[in-house]
Amino acid sequence: MRKSLRSFTGEIIPADVVQSIVLGASRAPSSKNTQPWKLVLVQGLALESLREDYIAAFKKSEAPAFEYAYSPDPLPEAYKKRAIDLGKAFLIHKGIGREDKEKRKEHDCENFRFFGAMQVFFLAVNKGEYGQGTFLDCGLFLQALMTELDNRGLGSCPQYSVMAYPGLLHKHIPNSENLLFLLALPFGYPKTDSAANTFVSQREPLENYFRVVE
After folding, report:
1. What's the domain count of the chain?
2. Each residue of 81-119: pLDDT tens digit?
3. Angle (CA) 182 118 92, round 5°
4. What single string gives the DSSP state of each residue in 172-209?
5. In the prediction, which pLDDT does 195 show?
6. Is 208 among the domain residues?
7. How far apart are CA 58 and CA 67, in angstroms?
8. pTM of the predicted model, to two decimals?
């Protein structure tokens, strides 16, 4: 069962294993085999520098500058309720009270630390070379990538939130000016003693989204 993990060990996944994972994910389908995705792995000193800048931007409350809208605005009420329920459930799971502003801020900051992961994938497409279907193709590739990670005992957590500061990505990722970054995927071996990693989000009952026509 795939779930988002938010705490990782300090172990680096070897380059040959990473390449095998990416090659496995590359068999994801895409329209007319266009394969529009671009994938960048950031690790080592580059990741630590990026992480520092992200944390600084978050703590200074810099205004987000998302380059694409992930969700409809306003969010449909059913979607909004699920998002609120998830946030509440996760904070309760971590023992963070509603009025504990400092712990809540630290909780939010974990996003911009990439949950302590030592390696992070960044998924992107070429600017000016995408449509709505391109995002679907990239989603299929992303799911294949997460499945490949899971199959090797690794874990990951897809993140749109860190797309708030695209300028930092372009600063720390060379030759990325023509890329539209879609999402970050921290990954690694999960910390087994982490309370955050025991959290499992709820899913809608089958009858709420599935039907059979015959």
Report:
1. 1
2. 999 999 899 888 988 887 888 888 888 899 999 999 999
3. 75
4. HSTT-TTEEEEEEEEEEPBPTT-SGGG-------GGGT
5. 87
6. no
7. 17
8. 0.95
